[in-house]
Amino acid sequence: MSTLPVNPPPSRQKITTRSFRLKKQRAEPITVLTAYDYPTALAIDQAGIDSVLVGDSLGMVVLGYENTLPVTMEDMLHHCRAVARGVQYALLIGDMPFMSYQADVPDAVRNAGRFLQEAGMDAVKLEGGRERVEAIRAIVGAGIPVMGHLGLTPQSVNQFGGFRAQGRTAVGAKQLLDDALVLEEAGCFGIVLESVPVRLAELVSQRLEIPTIGIGAGAGCDGQVLVTHDLLGLFDRFTPRFVKRYASLHEEMNKAFAAYKADVEDKAFPAAEHTFTMDDDQWEVLLRELGD
Ligand code: KIV
Fold it and tell me: What confidence tens digit (pLDDT) does each residue in 54-87 have?
């Protein structure tokens, strides 16, 4: 009798920027999660998530900084390489860190290129609207897919005076919509909308042909992204209100570490099954050798 499943799943294919656009056309939600290391990337890819973003949120949830500003190109490339080793199918997006694309357009192109050439990424993401259009055009012109990021762009935290929702006034909302259209025209394959009102995110998503990926922007976006450490409950400093927690791994880790400490202190670990043995005759030889 055949052991093949009745309906074998269609063979999985690598997700590309084209798949993003096709998913939008078919109204199929796009799933994106962040990862910064090999085992997490592997688990995300195995779960069938469409895209892995190596976000500069790395700075806060892995490196322990207050915000994303101290993250460097070398930090990003190091973690992108680890993630790329764990992913076979998902579209890999590397986040360009603060000051790697703002100062100078040729520099922006060179830095974007490093994500593909040295770190195995398929695309880059960068923050900002019309003020980034030259850099985006140049990067796309070099053959590198770019994802935009509007709304609460964390690299501008000092300009915003904190991590605050954006686009909540008519003027701010119109500016964001115009920026989204400018980014589409400049060649972005998608745009992250972070912490913007639901209505605005819905409107932007309807007006664009490229997909919007929301975080704190409601269900009207074409896809969703979350910081994996928030979803897993691994980051204990704060949880933004738009996060849904699917696990409490920080607590689980605390429990496991406390149990290990207790076992070692009580001499309950290591037990016999965690140890190696030596044959009696070999032991005798050793004792004779030592003259005991
Ligand atoms: O750095 C990051 O993880 C991001 C996501 C929150 C979109 O930019």
Answer: 999 999 999 999 999 999 999 999 999 999 999 9
Among 191, 193, 194, say which to mutate for ligand 1: greatest number of ligand atoms within 8 Å of CB: 194
Q: pTM (2 decimals)?
A: 0.94
Q: Is 216 in the pocket of ligand 1 (CB under 6 A)?
A: no
Catalytic site residue 194?
Answer: yes
Ligand 1 neighbour 155 (Cβ under 6 A) = no
Question: In one letter, which amino acid is 172?
Answer: G
Tell me if 225 is assigned to some domain. Answer: yes
CA distance 248 to 230: 9
In a domain, 2, yes or no: no
Cα 54 to ligand 1 centroid, rounded to whole Å: 8
Residue 226 CA, closest ligand 1 atom number: 6
Distance, CA 290 to ligand 1 centroid (Å)? 62
User: pLDDT per residue over 144-193, tens digit each?
Assistant: 999 999 999 999 989 898 888 889 999 999 999 999 999 999 999 999 99
In a domain, 184, yes or no: yes
In angstroms and rounded to an integer, the radius of gyration of the C-alpha atoms of the chain is 24
- Both 135 and 270 in one domain: the answer is no
Strands of 63-111, DSSP E:
91-95
Does residue 143 sit in the same domain as residue 271?
no
Based on the fold, state whether residues 192 and 281 are members of the same structural domain: no
57 close to 152: Cβ distance less than 8 angstroms: no
Region of 251 (left: φ > 0; alpha: ψ -120 to 50; beta: rest) is alpha
Q: Could you tell me the residue range of the domain that residue 274 belongs to?
A: 252-290
